[in-house]
Design goal:
This protein has 158 residues and is mainly alpha-helical. The chain contains six helices and no strands.
């Protein structure tokens, strides 16, 4: 399991941070990395949830829906990071722009929390609560690792 988490971490770093503060990857490369990350994450979830045949039929539909919705939120966050990176590199970050970026970040965080709350109910409706908890633990661990790696690669505002 440790190796799978490491693979996911590396792939997500490449997907979300590397293009912002380093040399951009081609669109084709990014798509390939995204697909690899998705399949590895799904395998990690499947390995740990040990779903019954009945649970399996309904859970993956909810899972895929959540992944699509969270990808939209992550895309917004990526765009915010790109916006900050542009200002940072140009050394043009003003107090007004900093306030706007911070406000936009908090809106994204609020939307992420709303999304998680809505899917908490959906996941719990299709699998037992202990398995639902395991699923959210996996999601949260992956997100915590990704966010840490993102955070250490984004320089502080000057």
């Amino acid at each position: 399991m440790k190796k799978t988490v490491q693979i996911i971490i590396i792939l997500f770093i490449c997907l979300w941070v590397a293009p912002v503060f380093a040399q951009e990857l081609s669109s084709k490369s990014m798509d390939a990395l995204r697909e690899a990350a998705k399949s590895n994450k799904k395998a990690l979830v499947a390995l740990n949830l040990k779903l019954t045949e009945t649970e399996d039929k309904v859970f993956w539909k909810v899972y895929e829906s959540y992944q699509k919705d969270i990808a939209k939120v992550n895309e917004r966050l990526l765009n915010l990071i790109k916006d900050y990176a542009k200002e940072y590199k140009a050394k043009s970050l003003t107090d007004e722009k900093a306030k706007q970026l911070t406000s936009n970040y908090l809106v994204i965080e609020e939307d992420l929390l709303k999304l998680k709350k809505s899917y908490l109910e959906k996941v719990s409706a299709v699998i037992p609560d202990k398995k639902a908890m395991t699923y959210w633990q996996i999601e949260n661990k992956i997100q915590a690792i990704i966010r840490f790696d993102v955070a250490i690669n984004i320089p502080l505002a000057e």
